[in-house]
Automatic annotation (TrEMBL):
This is Sodium:proton antiporter. The keyword RNA-binding does not apply. Belongs to the monovalent cation:proton antiporter 2 (CPA2) transporter (TC 2.A.37) family. GO terms for biological process: proton transmembrane transport; sodium ion transport. It comes from Enterococcus faecium. The chain crosses the membrane at residues 12-32. GO terms for cellular component: membrane.
Length: 83
């Protein structure tokens, strides 16, 4: 893993980070709302989901080891997962 291409991949990293945050936040909030949580509680559940990333790290590692992800994309994905 190298960080040499991060400057070039910055737009990709930003878009993926925003998408990851929004999908986790909205998915968690929607699920909580569906089971009867209030709006405030639903948003709290959604916000709590934003920090999960262990499984994404494992999947990225498997993809890199299987040669499905290039080194540049693997590095970018790790940065996105950490953010």
């Amino acid at each position: 893993m190298t960080f040499n291409t991060l400057g070039k991949d910055l737009p990709f990293i930003l878009v993926m980070t925003i998408m990851a945050i929004l999908t986790k936040l909205l998915g968690g909030a929607w699920g909580a709302k569906m089971v009867g949580f209030s709006n405030t509680s639903s948003l709290m559940v959604g916000a709590g989901m934003v920090s999960r990333g262990e499984m994404a790290l494992i999947i990225a590692q498997i993809g890199y080891q299987s040669k499905l992800l290039s080194e540049a994309y693997y590095t970018s994905m790790i940065v996105v997962i950490i953010l």
